[in-house]
């Protein structure tokens, strides 16, 4: 997560630590003691308010997934305050990506925990994109009078707003299609009835799809007219040109060069991308120097 001073914060799922990186200097700024790493759970996504005075962390506890808010003084995080708990958790598909939108509301992805039918249950917080206030309350105007903003998701791992204020999400498929979706309030994105396109008029189709072997998408960002999607199993960085609500043909960069890519963000100066590798997650053989934070320019 980039900071306005040019540094950034990184969460570590297994160690429960949040680190601040400035240049080549790394410092631990918090340890989330209540996080309990297991399988795909642990300390997951981070987000910050526009003024960077508050930082949010999504993590797995011993009984649920939850969101905590920290104060941030530019050097260290304060004590965590849980603002939302009771999000279903499991050994896999815990979601955990967050972003503060242009409306100053917090958007949160949750996985369906491996219990597919939860994705279609609008009273459950699993398999959804949530929209909440920075105090953890359901956002005013949410479509179902609760925290749920959209539903029918398997495991969204990337969220970003483009300059027009549209929300995009990258989503893990099962065995057929990974997805890039344009998110609409109240939209049903089909899981588990459909994977990929062709679900019918009451479901929203993805605007781009990939075979999981080519993608397994994680982080997502917008930069200079395109969406950039970090691929884990696909071991590449996908560029998806945008023209309004339309997407162009995806372009692959760095295929099998750096291994599994977990996150991609725009640096604070807007002139480069920051890409985080994830070769130490037990899914592949780590390389010398893994994991790495890469800076990419055009």
Describe the structure.
The structure is a single chain. With 298 residues, the protein is mainly beta. It has a single domain (78-296), classed as Neuraminidase. The chain has no helices and 23 strands. It has strands spanning 8-11, 17-22, 25-31, 43-48, 54-60, 65-71, 81-87, 98-100, 106-109, 128-132, 148-151, 156-161, 167-171, 178-183, 208-210, 217-223, 226-231, 236-243, 246-247, 251-253, 261-266, 273-277, 293-296. The strands form six sheets. Strands 16, 17, 18, 19 and 20 form a five-stranded antiparallel β-sheet that branches. A four-stranded antiparallel β-sheet has the order 4-5-6-7, with no helix packed on it. It is globular. It starts with 7 loop residues before the first strand and ends with a strand. The model has no long low-confidence stretch (mean pLDDT 95).
